[in-house]
Amino acid sequence: MEKATLLDWYRQMVQIRRFEQKCAELYQLGKIGGFLHLYIGQEAVAVGSIAARQENDHIITAYRDHGHALAVGADMRRVMAEMLGKVTGVSKGKGGSMHLADVNKRFWGGYAIVGGHLPLAAGIALAEQYKGTDAAVLCYFGDGATNIGYFHESLNLAGVWKLPVLWICENNQYGMGTAVDRASAVPRIIDKATAYGMKGKQVNGMDVVEVYQATQKALKAIRSGKGPQFLEMITYRYEGHSMGDPLRYRTKDEVEKWRADDPIGILERRLLQEHNATQDELEAIDQAVEQEIAEAVKFAEESPLPSPEELFTDIYVEA
Amino acid sequence: MARITMRQAITDALREEMLRDENVFIMGEEVGVWGGTYAVTRGFYDEFGPQRVKDTPIAEMVIGGAAVGAAMNGLRPVAEFMTINFAFLALDAIVNHAAKVHYMFGGQFKCPVVFRAPGGGGRQLGATHSHTPDVIFAHFPGLKVVSPATPYDAKGLLKSAIRSDDPVLFIEHATLYQVRGEVPEEEYLIPIGVSDVKRTGSDVTIVAYAQGLQVALEATNELAKEGIEAEVVDLRSLRPLDMGPAITSFKKTFKAVIVEEGYRSFGIGAEVAARLQEEAFDYMDAPIKRVAQMEVPLPYSRELEQSALINKDRVIAAVKEIL
Ligand SMILES: Cc1ncc(C[n+]2csc(CCOP(=O)(O)OP(=O)(O)O)c2C)c(N)n1
Ligand SMILES: [Mg+2]
């Protein structure tokens, strides 16, 4: 991998992490409301896989969507404005943290019904197949989502119709407080993909380079006509499921063990040891990100709230 | 003008729209090789091919959701639920996705999907296969719900539904497939959300739609023999609900009976009655009556099932009670 590429991924991962830490602060201050699901610990998955996409590929995910939104290149100021419910937000303040989207980046958004967006991904892929393009859909979901009917119906349909979907399971070990082996009859998620004609591959989701390479390979397989593909990214969320999670279901030791494999730490070591990056170089990136976040918060805070009339816009396209 | 069945009118609308716009395609269980469980898409598979007439697995959640995704990404899917009873499995895709994506993402996405679903009771199909759950779907802003009563309306409304940039649930009462009516050769559209006066009269206003409209019209024929002239308003669309003609009529007759096949509780009748009293309270001369399905799961046995459903005698009795 080129050093410049790795530095860019480092920047993106730091950007996501610091953005979310800022969001947590704003949540404590009451400036962000509703549910807030942090992606901290999983940054390598969104960054590495989205880096592997071709320009016309589509992205769709669940409510834990800040990382994907930033990785597709959505304007951070407008993402932050959405968090604060401002009209300048990516979804005009009507979506919030769970419903970020950016149609211009082919990012179809975050969805809050577990598994509900998997059939949408199949449909988006169907439209590409119908039009005869070579675009694929990268569809992200959690380990918990693999137990819901939507998952099974969508994988089956994608298999039968050979839809260009890359199913990306972000196995962060828990669905809320329920560990994978307490909710899934098979502990290896990829075993479920087998049932629908996909081989599936487990990937170290803490290593952005591994994520990138596996995604690239899977997308190539899709484009060469091999049908839908499945990746299980083994990862971990460092924070609670959402704000206010009592964290009764896991031990501090377990979290510490995973923190030793921090995706940003792994990349940082690789940059310093294998690519002659300097601490100064990385710090300069950190500072630039801080600056960007400060500007995003300022933009969001200074933005107007949606006007009362906005309540009634966009219910229908046609009056 | 040709007199054709409602089934034929729906078939013609689908076929014409598929010929007009290649982004229109059909997906659902048994829509292709079989030719449609109610034979609405007979011949389509041979004419349009498997790319545009897609047989799906028995998987309502993904039929609903994939149609939403395809619509968001530029196609115009007409997704058929074999019957509306099975659309319950897709309620989330319809209500939480089709009806929400435009609003929830601040207008970034459109969802021009049509869900077609035959529904209704009266065919001895037992408790799970006889629902008229139209109100459940009509409850949600973001979705349009249409349920025609005549071949003419069915054709014009389905064509509008397919061309609409919004998600539309198109409910076809299965006992109406054989109903015949005049349909012109030339192209026409009927706008969604516009009610229609199907019979004029000055003694009482009957508000109905779909199969309820046919029952209401039967009743008015008998009432006319006794010199009672009812005005009949066909809602045609449940959301958006056009109350204009019903209110105008009520202000003339001062009395109303609402006829629907679904249950009375929380039903169309409750909604229409509430709106009449809100908007025309001073014109009300008598309690507004509701004729609807008995509050029981529908039984199999023929006479028993019929006794739970609406019929012309119950409409006539309701009218006479308030005259
Ligand atoms: C259909 C449905 N059931 C329950 C919930 C509540 N819920 C939200 S997130 C979640 C856990 C999902 O876990 P997973 O798929 O592993 O994703 P993660 O949160 O770990 O990213 C649950 C149960 C929901 N949003 N939707
Ligand atoms: Mg999880």
Please report the two chains with the greatest interface, counting residues with C-beta closer than 8 angstroms to the partner's C-beta: A-B, 45 and 43 residues
The CATH class of chain A is identified as Alpha Beta
CATH superfamily of chain A: Thiamin diphosphate (ThDP)-binding fold, Pyr/PP domains
| Number of individual domains of chain A | 1
Strand content of chain B: 15-25%
Roughly how much helix do the residues of chain B carry, as a percent range? Answer: 25-40%
What's the rounded overall pLDDT mean of chain B?
98
Q: Describe the oligomeric state of these chains in a short phrase.
A: heterodimer
Number of helices of chain A: 12
Looking at the structure, the CATH topology of the largest domain in chain B is Rossmann fold
Q: Which overall shape of chain A is indicated by the principal axes computed on the Cα atoms?
A: globular
Q: Strand tally of chain B, please?
A: 14
End-to-end span of chain A in angstroms? 52 Å
Name the features.
heterodimer, A: 319 residues, alpha/beta, Rossmann fold, 6-stranded parallel beta sheet, two-stranded antiparallel ribbon, 12 helices, 47% helix, B: 323 residues, 2 domains, 5-stranded mixed beta sheet, 14 strands, globular, binds thiamine diphosphate, binds magnesium ion
